[in-house]
Amino acid sequence: MTTAPWQSGTNDTTTIRLDLTNASPLGSPAFTAVTARRTLTRPTPAAAPPAPPQAATVKIEWPQPVRDYVQRAFADKNDSHPDGIEDSAIAAKLKAVITQAAEANQLNIINWPSHPLPRELLRIERAALMSASKKRKSMDMESTPDASSPIPPWRVKNLSLADRITNPSPDKRQKKADQFRATAPPSKLSDLEKRRQRFALGNQGPNSPYISSPRDDSPMPDANDGPCVGTSQELEKNYFRLTAPPKPETVRPLHILKQTLDLLIRKWKDEHNYGYICDQFKSLRQDLTVQHIKNDFTVRVYEAHARIALEKGDLGEYNQCQTQLRTLYKMKLRGSPGEFLAYRILYTIYTCNRQTMNDVLADLTSADKQYPAVKHALAVRASLATGNYHRFFRLFNESPNMGAYLMDMFVNRERVAALAAICRA
User: Fold this and answer.
1) With CB atoms 3.0 to 4.6 Å apart as the test, which of 38, 112, 337, 394 could cross-link to 65 if both were Cys?
2) 113 Cβ contact partners less than 8 Å away, ≥ 6 residues apart
3) Alpha carbon distance 247, 126 (integer Å)
4) What are phi and psi of 100, to 5 degrees?
């Protein structure tokens, strides 16, 4: 039986040694060696590493003429001049001149005593800019056509959107036509020619002075053409868009148009056939336009058509009549401007057009605000702006004239908004 060394009774001491000299390290030690402090004094901080050497700054030796030039420039800058050149601009120009000369190694080449000062250089630059702008302006004036030359379509004022779309420039039309002929097959060209011949019977081409659009109810006569005086005695006439100058035998004179208006109002009260009445009113308005009639009777026609359109909810015809009435009212013709101003305010509330509403409110006069219908429309706007739905529905039941027809178009929307406000409360 083997006895362990520490259990033996002998005095022999056995030393166990671990040979770590050949052992490979398993990793970095789990401690950091520090130097033990042996005194109570503060240790001397380690010296900072030396900063890398900086590149030596190249010192520029300014020639004496350059220094004299700078002194003259600053002396000129301090003087009062009425040319409006600021001191900061002079200093910036001086720096730019000297920097440019130094970069180009021309400090000793430039004749500084005779070199223009920064103020002179700025004056020269501004004079060049002024001459260039005057030259462009003179060229624009020369290119402006005189009054005797025909005005191109893109310079005509009050040109409707439909006319701008349907009447492109002749050069563009010709260019597109040439490209199509060059690439299209012969069969396609023959079909296109047949189609052009079919429609040539009812179309006078782009050179016709009477070009109509789907939204227009009257032609656009030439400015040199006088009014057409009608001779027709028929009270009723169907509406057709004009594609040629109107003939006097198809246009009704003023006294016949007055009889036509009375007939249409009676038929509307008896029959309520809106399709027929609207067609007849558009024909009536067309006869007024081609004869250049703008008087109190014209106001009556547009007001009657606008009221009928409101009653049937035809906002397209109502807007056309409202636009013409605004122009006629500016001519101080008799009518009902207060009534239709109130309709305009209510219609703007319906469309939620804040910009138009601001324009309407800005154009209101103290006399306009005295109309009862206008007062009612402004009260409706104020009640909705403040969220006073109780007052709004009271005003809805008290609508004067035909304002209720316009309020019917947005009352349901405000009912939903009122219910939402109640639920949130």
Assistant:
1) 112
2) 65, 68, 69
3) 63
4) -65, -40
Structure tokens at 249: 């035998």
Count CB atoms within 10 A of the CB of residue 54.
6
DSSP 8-class letter at 152: P
**Residue 375 pLDDT exceeds 60:** yes
Task: Using alpha carbons, list the distances in angstroms from residue 113 to 65, 72, 94.
Answer: 7, 9, 14
The residue among 74, 69, 66, 67 whose CA lies nearest residue 106 is 66
Per the CB < 8 A criterion, the answer to whether 246 and 219 are in contact is yes
Tell me 42's DSSP state. Answer: P
End-to-end CA distance of the chain: 100
Place of tokens 């700054």: 57
The per-residue DSSP string of 305-326 comes to HHHHHHHHT-HHHHHHHHHHHH
Q: Where are the domains of the chain?
A: 64-128, 167-201, 212-335, 341-425
Segment 237-280, tens digit of pLDDT: 999 888 888 888 889 999 999 999 999 999 999 999 999 999 99
DSSP 126-174: HHHHHHHHHHHHHHHHHHS--TTSPPPGGG-TT--HHHHHH---HHHHH
Question: 224: number of CA atoms within 13 Å, CB side?
Answer: 3
Nearest to 68 by CA among 94, 96, 103: 94
Q: What does DSSP assign to residue 117? A: P
DSSP type of residue 102: H
Q: Which residue has the higher pLDDT, 92 or 393?
A: 393
